[in-house]
Design goal:
Elements (H helix, E strand, L loop, with lengths): L1 E3 L5 E4 L13 H4 L15 E8 L7 E9 L2 E7 H7 L4 E4 L3 E4 L1 E6 L18 H14 L4 H17 L2 E8 L14 E8 L4 H13 L6 E3 L7 H14 L3 E5 L3 H9 L3 H8 L17 H7 L7 E5 L5 H9 L3 E4 L1 H7 L6 H6 L5 E2 L12 H11 L5 H15 L17 E5 L1 H4 L4 H10 L5 E5 L5 E2 L1
Parallel strand pairs: 3-6, 3-7, 8-9, 9-10, 10-11, 12-13, 13-14, 14-15
Antiparallel strand pairs: 1-2, 3-4, 4-5, 7-16, 16-17, 17-18
Helix pairs in contact: 5-6, 9-10, 13-14, 14-16
């Protein structure tokens, strides 16, 4: 559908509950399916040996092993000890490294066909990039079929690059999960927005009519009224799913909330959606996180994506409320919006996740590349911490650490086996992690599933 403001041009294309095919609202259709890697459980133990095992939650193990049974990890440790402990196990030797699958905590699959969105020039603003993307989406040159096809291809690329779990944010439900089958587990959030009071009334009505099987979230403070964000946050808390929000991605967003000026005000005025809501009367808000705190939205169920333009006080606020953070360094570099203060976040005890964002705002949706960019942007942060962000950080941010993010007893047995000449030359754990996070995607990558089968 097209969300319009009276007397204005098009704001943005968005999906409402009225536009969703209501006869198809079934839990099996719209709730992200759990991918069970072991479809034929057996009681036998499979033992996988490797020169290096990287559990993430415990030290790297040289000449290590992972024991799995019925789709779950049974034990992780020294190969000789586990071979003795599980003498009847089927034993398979792997080359290179065993580690948990990566977690992409922020991706827009529906934008996979928009890789031709122009990169902003140094003299352009963040709003100019939004205008360019909206122009492409509203032109209608990319069909629904092409959108779904590109999303499927991206899912395949994610799996082939070592991603086990991802959080997909979209304005449309692209297709029933049955037609998007992939070994990657997808958690999907339908993204809604409304920039002014008139749009808020419409969107609140849509929120009220959404079936509980559809998880929904808000876009960003600059595009979504406080009333909509509060309603969606309350709904997310009731349904028990993460509430993901674009937060402090650019200086333009901060300027809007602080002064009511800047390119976002111009952008909203162009669409007849400026109602003077910023700056808030009687409030001296200095940043986006302060604004969210004032609305009562900060808690452990909030996932703040980007967090580039946040100050010391705001990082402390996020930490005090147990909020989650997801950094998208490749997208930030593409858009020229700055570098998130990762060191400050780590100092306050936060472990950010990593996301790739979309092909409209990134050259490549590759978590290995994202780790390498983080290494370049933050040379003082240890490679081990960055690898933890790409695995356990994402699993924790999505509330899935009981299944993903580490190699530990009880976790799902989707083991990632990677290898390269550089990895084979690693002399110790420090060199190994340096190569994993700084050399890009390894030459060879395969999955070992819960039934003990390896897939390239």
């Amino acid at each position: 559908m097209q969300v319009l403001n009276p007397g204005s041009g098009l704001w943005i294309i968005r999906l409402s509950a009225r536009d969703l095919p209501l006869p198809f609202f079934k839990p099996s259709l719209y709730r992200a399916p759990k991918i069970i890697l072991n479809e034929n459980p057996v009681s036998a133990v499979s033992l996988f040996l490797a020169p290096w095992v990287v559990p993430i939650s415990s030290p790297v193990i040289a000449d290590g092993a992972v024991a799995i049974r019925d789709g779950r990890i049974l034990a992780v440790g020294d190969a000789s000890i586990l071979q003795s402990q599980f003498a009847e196990a089927r034993v398979d030797g792997c080359q290179g490294v065993l580690l948990p699958g990566l977690v992409n905590a922020h991706i827009h699959l529906e934008l996979s066909a928009y890789n031709h969105t122009p990169r902003p020039t140094p003299d352009q603003s963040f709003c100019d990039w939004i205008r360019a993307l909206l122009k492409l989406r509203q032109a209608g040159d990319i069909s629904a079929h092409e959108t779904v096809r590109s999303a499927r291809q991206m899912l395949e690329q994610q799996r082939n690059a070592g991603t086990a779990l991802l959080l997909d944010i979209g304005n449309n439900i692209l297709a029933p999960p049955a037609s998007m089958q992939t070994p990657v587990e997808i958690n999907f959030l339908l993204e809604l927005l409304g920039p002014d009071a008139k749009a808020e009334e419409q969107v609140l009505a849509r929120i009220g009519s959404l079936p509980d099987v559809v998880s929904a979230t808000a876009h960003a403070p600059y595009s979504t009224t406080a009333g909509i964000m509060k309603a969606l946050k309350k709904r997310a808390d009731r349904l028990g799913h993460i509430f993901s929000l674009h937060v402090a991605e650019s200086v333009d967003e901060v300027a809007l909330l602080r002064t009511g000026q800047g390119c976002f005000r111009e952008f909203l005025e162009e669409r007849g959606a400026w109602d003077g809501r910023f700056p808030r009367p009687g409030k001296k808000i200095q940043g986006v996180v302060e604004y969210l705190a004032d609305l009562g939205l900060l808690d452990a169920n909030l996932l703040c994506v980007h967090c580039v333009q946040v100050n010391e006080q705001e990082v402390q606020l996020l930490a005090e409320h147990g909020c989650k953070i997801c950094l998208c360094p490749g997208s930030n570099r593409f858009l020229g919006v700055g570098v998130a203060p990762l060191e400050r976040m780590l100092h306050h005890g936060l472990l950010p996740a990593i996301g790739t964002d979309s092909m409209a705002s990134n050259e490549s949706l590759d978590l290995w590349r994202e780790m390498r960019i983080l290494r370049e942007d933050h040379p003082c942060v240890s490679p081990a911490r960055i690898l933890t962000m790409a695995t356990l950080g994402g699993a924790q941010a999505m509330g899935r650490a009981q299944d993903f993010g580490t190699l530990a007893p009880g976790r799902m047995a989707g083991l990632l086996n990677v290898n390269s000449p550089a990895l084979q030359r690693a002399q110790d754990a420090e060199q190994l992690i340096d190569i994993l996070t700084g050399h890009g995607q390894p030459d060879k990558l395969c999955w070992i599933s819960g039934n003990g089968n390896a897939t390239v």
